Amino acid sequence: MARLFLVRHAKPAATWGEAVDPGLDELGREQAEHTAHSLRDTLPPMAIYSSPLRRCVETSAPLVQSWARDAVPLPAVAEVPSPPLGVAERAQWLAAGMQGTWAQLQAGSPLGSPDYGEWRKKLLEALQALPADSVIYSHYIAINVVIGAALNNERVINFRPGHASITEIDVRNGRFKIRQLGKEADGGVLLGR
Fold it and tell me: pLDDT of the chain along its 193 residues, tens only?
């Protein structure tokens, strides 16, 4: 069994509908420090993995420094891949898609969009393959993929993880079990960054 500590990235300097790969703003850097202290004070050093996107890499930096180990890039836990839309249009697409199921999101995506079922499968397989307890820095929708798998629920959104929140999941025999959900966000993922 592996215990996974899924950390949503801290507050970015821009929303998903404003920039492709923003870093953290000042509040986000403070949130990243706070989360690193919480993890350091409650866990022994363990493997650290991160989405390759800047907001996750920057959120992981304080724990990386504290535990004196690198964060291994884990592309499978990156943000949900965007359909072939401009930055502003993709925010509207995601806001609409978050209201329903994965099948509805796929059906409402423009021609040339990724296969979201395949993306979810690869994300879950990557986490199932982790050999030991790990901290994983990821994203709102990616964390929801794991929660949906644990609940056997096809809704895109089952939980609203707040910035720099920590969600604990056990993986045993390929199955996900929720140990503790992280602190929930006050607003939507696209609102207020």
Answer: 999 999 999 999 988 767 779 999 999 999 999 999 999 999 999 999 999 999 999 999 999 999 999 999 999 999 999 899 887 888 889 899 999 999 999 999 999 999 999 999 999 999 999 999 999 999 999 999 999 999 999 999 999 999 999 999 999 999 999 999 999 997 555 433 3
The alpha carbon of 60 is separated from its chain's Cα centroid by a whole number of angstroms, namely 12
**Domains of the chain, CATH where assigned:** 7-180 (3.40.50.1240)
160-163 contact pairs (CB < 8 A, 24+): 160/184, 160/185, 160/188, 160/189, 161/6, 161/8, 161/185, 162/8, 162/186, 163/8, 163/9, 163/10, 163/11, 163/28, 163/31
The DSSP 8-state label assigned to residue 11 in this structure reads: -
Using left for φ > 0, alpha for ψ between -120 and 50, and beta otherwise, residue 112 falls in left
Q: What are phi and psi of 151, to 5 degrees?
A: -90, -5
pTM: 0.94
Q: Please, are residues 26 and 55 in contact by the beta-carbon 8 Å criterion?
A: no
**What gap in Å lies between CA 143 and CA 125, rounded to an integer?**
14
